[in-house]
Amino acid sequence: MDYMQQQLQSLGEQIAQNKQLLSDPDLAPLAQEEIAALELQKKVLEDSAAQIQSAKEKAQAKQQYTNCIIEIRSGAGGEEAKLWANELLTMYTRFANMKKYKVETLEELMIKIIGSDAYDTFSYESGVHRVQRVPATEAQGRVHTSTASVAVIPELPPSAIEIKEDNLEWQFTRAGGHGGQNVNKVSTAVRLTHKPTGIVISARTERYQQQNREIALELLRGKLWELEEARRAKEVGTARQAIGRAMRAEKIRTYNFPQNRVTDHRIHESWYDLESIVGGNLQPVIEALHNPKMWEKEGTSSEDEE
Predict the structure, then answer these.
(1) How far apart are CA 274 and CA 254, in angstroms?
(2) Which domain of life does the UniProt lineage start with (predicted)?
(3) Are 174 and 189 in contact (CB under 8 A)?
(4) Three-state SS string across the chain, please?
(5) What is the spatial distance between Cα 306 and Cα 303, in angstroms, rounded to a whole number?
(6) How many angstroms separate the CA atoms of 151 and 122, rounded?
(7) What pLDDT, in 10s, does the model give residues 6-49?
(8) Which residues lie across from 200 on neighbouring strands?
(9) What is the mean pLDDT of the chain?
(10) 165-231 domain in CATH 3.30.160.20?
């Protein structure tokens, strides 16, 4: 039993002892206060344990996965949210170029990043990214809040997830956009439906149908992996679900333009160099997220509560 487990066991025993005092009218008020304080300590320690476990699992994933797929979806905020989603895509593309990774466009707001440690580098980016700024169309100068969700999925080999052909429904259409006579005459675009889950994948970026089929299957494997990760997080519990291995719905970061501030809410850290970060210089943020000591911080900052 390690030190953290010993501490958790000790706190559990102290809570149990104080609960026995609740039957005593004279001691009950003090016992209730003590129980509340001990339970808070226990929760903080459990969260820290979950963070450490998440870091260990990410280290294992680093060895297992290399390339990654980044998918961005605009959230609340209308046209401003769509603009923000595109800015995030540009930010990741520029940072990937700085890291000498190869970037391939799979679909609108979806890219594949190819590099020996690409998944490890971007793995903490999954979640909701919130922007606070005055839109160009805002005449009154009011700050608006918009969001976009990011999913970072490792590129998986076909053997990683079994997909039965009977569970697939394929549709083929003519791809839109530029591409010459081939686009107009041949059904190269692919629409793939995974019948058990209802997941629908579209792929149309390549000139040949077989290439788009392969892309669609690759994206489907990623979606199924994401579903499995969400299921595992739910089984482990809310403490684990909210830390480290973010899913799409967790607010992980705020970009506050008026304050020139970027805040990561998981490690309660802020950087006052927003233009550089959004411009692609993510290295300070990535380094902080990969530092286990940063995850040991307790409580929240004022920026977290905005």
Answers:
(1) 10
(2) Bacteria
(3) yes
(4) CCHHHHHHHHHHHHHHHHHHHHHCCCCHHHHHHHHHHHHHHHHHHHHHHHHHHHHHHHHHHHHHCCCEEEEEEECCCHHHHHHHHHHHHHHHHHHHHHCCCEEEEEECCEEEEECCCHHHHHHHHCEEEEEEECCCCCCCCCCEEEEEEEEEEECCCCCCCCCCHHHEEEEEECCCCCCCHHHHHCCCEEEEEECCCCEEEEECCCCCHHHHHHHHHHHHHHHHHHHHHHHHHHHHCHHHHCCCCCCCCCEEEEEECCCCEEEECCCCEEECCHHHHHCCCCHHHHHHHCCHHHHHCCCCCCCCCC
(5) 6
(6) 10
(7) 777 888 888 898 888 888 888 888 888 888 988 888 887 777 66
(8) 193
(9) 82
(10) yes
Token pair, residue 219, equals 């994206």
CB atoms closer than 10 angstroms to residue 267 = 20
Sign of CA dihedral 288, 49, 124, 250: negative
Roughly what angle, to the nearest 10 degrees, separates helices 3-20 and 28-64?
160
| Distant-in-sequence, close-in-space partners of 158: CB < 8 Å, separation ≥ 6 | 217, 221
**Fold for domain 64-158+235-296?**
Alpha-Beta Plaits (3.30.70)
- Whether the CB-CB separation of 66 and 28 falls below 8 Å is answered with no
pLDDT at 227 over 90: no
Q: Which residue type sits at 180?
A: G
Do 45 and 38 touch, CB atoms closer than 8 A?
A: no
Placement of tokens 């053997």 in the chain: 159
Question: Could you tell me the residue ranges of all domains in the chain?
Answer: 3-60, 64-158+235-296, 165-231
If we measure between CA atoms, which residue out of 158, 127, 122 comes closest to residue 251? 127
As a whole-number percent, the residues of the chain with pLDDT over 70 amount to: 80
Amino acid symbol at 285 = V
Q: Distance (Å, rounded) from C-alpha 185 to C-alpha 59?
A: 48
User: What letter represents residue 125's amino acid?
Assistant: E
Lowest-confidence pick of 53-57, 108-112, 244-248, 254-258:
244-248
Residue pair 170/194 in contact by the 8 Å Cβ criterion? no
